[in-house]
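Subject: mismatched residue count in predicted assembly?

I count 661 residues in my input, but I want to confirm that the predicted structure covers every chain. Input:
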Amino acid sequence: MPVNSKLDGSNLTITVTGRFDFSVHQEFRMAYEGLSPSPSQYIVDLGETSYLDSSALGMLLLLRDFSGGDSADIKIINCNQDVKKILAISNFEQLFRIE
Amino acid sequence: MDTVRILIADDSKTDRLILQTLLKKQGYPVYIAKDGFEAVEIFKEHRPDIVLLDAIMPGKDGFEAAQEIKVLSGDSFIPIIFLTSLSDAPSLARCLEVGGDDFLTKPYNQIILRAKIEAFSRMQDLYQTVQLQRDQIQAYTNEMVIEQKQAKAIFDNIAHRGCLDNSNIRYNLSPLSIFNGDILLAAEKPVGGIHVFLGDFTGHGLPAAVGAMPVSEIFYGMTLKGFAMEEVLKEINTRLCHILPVGAFCCAIFLDIEYSENRIRVWNGGLPDGYIFEPNEGIKVKLPSTHLPLGVLSSLQFKSEISVCSFHENDHIFLATDGVIESESEKDHSIFFGSGRLESIINEHSDSVYHSIQAELNKFSGNERQTDDVTFLEISGKNHIKKITPKEQNHGVKQSLKWDIEYCFYVESLRHFDPLPLIVQPLMEVRALRPQRSRVFTVLSELYNNALDHGVLKLDSVTKGDADGFAQFYQNKTNRLKHLDKAEIRVAVHLNSQMDKGELTIKIEDSGTGFDYKSKLKEQVVANLSGRGLPLLKALCDSIEFQGKGNQVEVKLSWIEQ
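Triage response: the counts match. Full output below for your records.
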């Protein structure tokens, strides 16, 4: 599966392998929806993501919206240089913690 | 078998004549010698099949002649039968001791003479058959050794050493390890870091080597193209499932070492524990097998879950196939090297664990040959990457390239087919473009999806305003694709790569009605869930130009090589 998720206490880690684009949108959404109680922290691991496009950015914003909008606690981790650049172009570091 | 030719040597003329007459009557061609000297000379000249020697002769007697004839016979079996009137046991025994095969006492009995000659003739036939077979086996063996050497040369080109010669890697791999069923591969990833694969096929020899070939091809091919280790593992497993007979499989450990992130990702299916250790500190983490070996589970059941461990500059990794812990003691074959011994070496030796293990193994199993049969390696976290020269990476010199590719995707393809890998693939054959892989992929994806979603399918991205809208958008896309009647998307790629810079032009045209780009492009981009595509394109490309009625777009990406 290109999208995997792991719940550790109240931390949810979502891992996207390979391409992060519209084709994984349903899986990505399923990874965080319907969890009870809701996780307090979300971690998106892009260590194995080879590229992302604008619909991936949209999906990240949806996750942010879902988990509380401005009060959401979302970390995006293990980005490689290319992925980091895409996130930076769209100023996502203002909305997410990128590590 | 041709008629048996017989040499008779006897100093008594009468005896010679009797024997000659008897043999000729039975149809055997006969050579005559009157003493040992003549017997040896005639033997040299005519190479008779059987020799009848009188024991006592003047000059050179039968005993002496027999020894010389045996030497002259070399590899072939020439029966020597002594003719004697002696009857005491020691004399008869001596006939056999000097190399005679039998004796015949005078006076001769015609029936026994004939029976003996026939018996020896049969024995000679048998001997020749055995000899022929021995020569054939020898020839086959020689041929096989040559074939194996050639196979090994081919194998080495496919399952090459990759980056195993990096200064932070030390490994012990038998020169003929392919015929042991061990395989060790390492490759640098395009984004930095390395992939390492250590495998141990069940069985030995050719079947194992044959299985190792696709593993190597997949490993190097997919790693070079930037696939994640999970994908590489899945592909290897699927291929092995197809080609290996039931019961054959490959125990393996796969490492993804990310030096810059100070971590490794591990998958171990069936190999002994690997170790992460620090000199002076000993073993920090064991990397146990948590999966079934490769080639056992079907691709649906296969599990590619990975363990992640931290791996710092001072850390080392040690991996081995089971040959190490199963090495037998020289003194007692029921005692094995064992993992306890291995672990205490790692814990007790502060530096050069690799050499300590090699030395201890040799000492334990008592010879140098033993370590030839086992495969192990040590990787240190100190990674002084030797800069890969373009020549090594591309098997060639820096290229100047200029070409066009044009694709046209029709309804059937638009519906079911994801064309991006197809378009990216030939681009990644261009060495200079490999560092641009992610950028090219994003730009192409953006362009293609725009052409499909908005150009051909006329979907409105405003619906992507919230989560439900996103799903709705997806639903609409699926529906409209299903009912799409006539449409096409053309993708034209023009590459112009010089020695140290280059430019890629991508032009996409869809069969849709276009849009009013002149007014739309003036709108400010708002931070909602859609509308990020265009700014992204603008940031990643040097230029972006809409053409025609808005159904054509051309972008340029340039790069300068460092």
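DSSP finds 17 helices and 20 strands in chain B. Marking this ticket as 'not a bug'.
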